[in-house]
Every structure is written in C-alpha cells, then in structure tokens.
Specification:
This protein has about 425 residues and is of the alpha/beta class. It has 18 helices and 14 strands. The mean pLDDT is about 85. The protein binds adenosine monophosphate.
C-alpha cells in the first residue's frame, strides 16, 4: 500500500519524499481514505503512530480542493484543536511541511505568548487554524476570529483536552460551529467524556481503533528498576553518566521535583534543562531546541511537555517518577521508539509506587519484571538478605556505599568549582 493508492494527490506526495514517509502507517492507511470520502471518524491511536499525518493529509487535500481567488481574504475552513502549546507548534510544523506544495495557509494560536502577533495574522486570514481551546476562545471573544465558514474540525488528543477541564468551553464552541461540517476525533483512550464529545460533535462516525500495544512492546524496551526514593537522583545521574547516554528525557510528576532533579543533574556535571508549565514559552522553546541539537544531555520534563515533544530517534526516556495518570505512561514512553525506531523506556520505581505500576501493567496488558540496578538495591532487599546472612548482600552493600561516597564527592567538587567561578 502507498499514499498514492490511498488517494493522496501529487502535490502532497511530493512533500512526503523529503520526510521519508515511504509507506502509510496503519492509522494512516485506515483514516486517510475515510476522510477523503467525507466521513466523520473517531480514532483511538497512541502517540507515535503517525496520527498527525492521518488527519492532516486528507484535511489539507480537502481544503485545497476549494482555494479562494488570490485577492479574497481567506476564511478559517479547517480547525485542529489540540491540548497544549507544544502540540500546537508541533502540528503546525508538520502541517506546514505537508502543505509546502499547496496553496493552503495555516496559523497556530496558543497561550503563553503575546496576543497581538496572533491577532495580526488572524486579520490577514488563513484556511487552517491550529489552536489550543483557551487561546481560541480569547480570540473569539475579542472578535478576532470567525468560525462561520468552518468545514472541517479535528480534535487531536481529545482525552487530554477534556482532562484539562475544557468540557464547557468545547461544548459552547461546538454549538457555535456550522452544523454542516466534517469532524474527526483522535484520542488515546475512550473515556466516558470522550464518548460524550463524540456524541455531541460527530455525525454517524466510523470508529477506528489502532491496537498497537504489541508493536509498542516490540519497539520500546521497557525496564523497571526498584530503588529507594531517596536514592533515585543518585541512580539517575549514575545511570546516565556510566552508560554515556547523551540524549535522555526524564519525566517527573511535579514541577518541584523537575526543578530538584534538574539541579541535581547539573551539580553532577550533566548538562541539563528543565521544562514545565511555569517556564516561559521562550524558555521552553530554548530547552527543546537545545535538547534536539544535543547541546544538553538531559531534559527533565513534567507530563504537559510529554504530549507535544516530537524528537525523532530519541534513545532514552526515564520515568524518574511514575505519572499520576497511568495512561500518561504510554505518552511518556511513546517519546522513544517512534515510527518504527527502537528505544528504551526506564522507570525508577520506589516502594510507594508499586501499586501505580500495577495499574500501568493493566493498560499495557503485560507485566514487566522489576529488577535492581547493581549497587542501588533497596534497603528492604538488603535487610532481607542480611537476615539470611548472605555474603553477596554484604559485598553489594559495601560497594553501594563506596559508590555513593564517590558520587557525593564528585558533586561536592563540581559545586565548589561552580561557586569559585561565581565568585570570580
Ligand atoms: P505522530 O504520531 O503523528 O506524532 O507521528 C510520530 C512520528 O512518525 C513523527 O515523527 C512523524 O514525522 C513520523 N511519521 C508519521 N507518518 C510516517 C510515515 N508514514 N512514515 C515514516 N514516519 C512517519
């Protein structure tokens, strides 16, 4: 099967060549023909499956069929709603590259940046808008935007949009949109609220489920290291340093622990930046590009960042803490092993997090055996072994202590030299 046999036009095929999209992914093979036929579609697909192109290619192709005359102001005919600004700019970049040989204009609007440049762009007009709900509503309320000509609506990561508490806004938005339109809904899971959104916004939808759990397991090598909470930072820096890993995405549950882990990594001599909701848009963009370019080794991020980050060929994702929402495990681990490439997803799990991992395993539909990282065995294990009086426990514990002292000394030295530099 090729994109051509799915009915994709030559002006889009030419844009896929430099991107190396040689054949459609399963979600693309199913969704593209349906959208081109004008059907409403609900698709459940994980991140990394190629879902953006699955909706964006037929969306662009449909919009390109009716390009207005040069002199007339463009009206918004397509709208892609996304949960986060990172995803908005990622989708915008993908759409811009897919439409390089088409006369379809796109704009992305999202919060965290000034309104005026976006207002100016909106006033010039565009065919396609990629937006986060909050900022979209702001522009609508300011009268900067008219959705009366909308023909196609896409919800990307609908579950996350609703998780962020946008139900009322979305309901209101949908009620204002023209009834005669085509709607596509993409979501990782099918919660009650996603189903409800489907009911109020789609007409006779075709439902597609891409079950790629098996693929996911094959592509992403997943490990769990059981470790005491207070030794996680130490293990993390040791693991990255001793394995000589150079592009590691680390996830924490809270902004505070992201900052703490970031500080620890920097003090351990690993170039690190932190990405979370309190960072300004410019800081976030800077952190992402530094990570992509390889000028930093470690990027510590909270879950909001995990949705919008598309770094191809990312070799290592480490869960410093398990996510609050078990489904986010898939989103996080989905940053590695993208589009057929292999990757490693490692979780550092402390005693308190074991029940959470059981929940994750339910979603994964398979179990992952927890193991110890040599020298970082838990106190509980050491005590049990000590009771048994095994020699191995003694040796391992002594080694762990020595290693711990070594790492601490190294951090102290780095801190000291930084402080000296600061004084100069
Ligand atoms: P997505 O699930 O849309 O975030 O896509 C995940 C990654 O797969 C992105 O880096 C895309 O550029 C890439 N991708 C999407 N479709 C294809 C394809 N047909 N062939 C190769 N890579 C693809």
């Amino acid at each position: 099967m090729t994109f051509e046999t799915l009915g994709v036009i030559p002006q889009i095929l030419s844009a896929l060549i430099p991107l190396d999209y040689t054949k459609p992914t399963p979600v693309q093979a199913k969704v593209i023909p349906l959208v081109l036929e004008g059907k409403d579609v609900i698709a459940t697909a994980q991140t990394g499956t190629g879902k953006t192109a699955a909706y964006a290619l037929p969306l662009l192709q449909t919009l390109a069929r009716k390009i207005p005359k040069e002199m007339t102001k463009r009206s918004i005919r397509g709208l892609v709603l996304v949960p986060t600004r990172e995803l908005a700019s990622q989708v915008y970049n993908a759409i811009t590259s897919y439409s390089k040989d088409l006369h379809v204009n796109s704009i992305a609007i999202y919060g965290g940046v000034k309104l005026t440049p976006q207002t100016n762009k909106l006033q010039k007009g565009a065919d396609l808008l990629i937006a986060t709900p909050g900022r979209l509503i702001e522009h609508l309320q300011m009268g900067n935007l008219d959705l009366s000509k909308l023909e196609m609506l896409v919800f990307d990561e609908a579950d996350r949009i609703l998780d962020m508490g946008f139900w009322n806004e979305i309901e209101l938005l949908v009620a204002q949109m023209p009834k005669k339109r085509q709607t596509l809904l993409f979501s990782v899971g099918m919660s009650k609220s996603v189903k409800r959104l489907g009911e109020i916004s789609l007409k006779k939808p075709v439902t597609i489920a891409i079950n790629n759990q098996g693929d996911f397991a094959k592509k992403v090598e997943q490990s769990i290291y059981l470790v005491d909470k207070e030794r996680k930072c130490e293990l993390l820096s040791y693991m990255i340093g001793s394995n000589n890993w150079h592009q590691v995405l680390v996830f924490t549950r809270t902004k505070q622990s992201a900052d703490e882990v970031g500080k620890y990594m920097e003090e351990s001599g690993l170039k690190t930046l932190v990405l979370h909701g309190d960072k300004a848009h410019s800081q976030r963009t800077k952190a992402i590009s530094a990570f992509k370019e390889g000028t930093i080794r470690v990027l510590v991020a909270t879950d909001i960042a995990s949705r919008g980050l598309d770094i191809e060929d990312l070799p290592h994702v480490i869960n410093y803490e398990l996510p609050g929402d078990a489904e986010d495990y898939l989103h996080r681990a989905g940053r590695t092993g993208r589009a057929g490439k292999e990757g490693k997803a490692i979780s550092l799990v402390c005693k308190e997090e074991k029940p959470k991992f059981k929940e994750i395993e339910k979603i994964l539909k398979y179990t992952i055996k927890g193991e110890f990282y040599k020298g970082f065995e838990t106190k509980e294990w050491a005590e049990k072994e000590a009771k048994k009086g095994t020699i191995r426990a003694k040796i391992d514990h002594e080694k762990a202590n020595k290693r711990s002292i070594g790492i601490k000394k190294k951090r102290e030295a780095i801190k000291e030299s930084k402080a000296k530099k600061g004084k100069k």
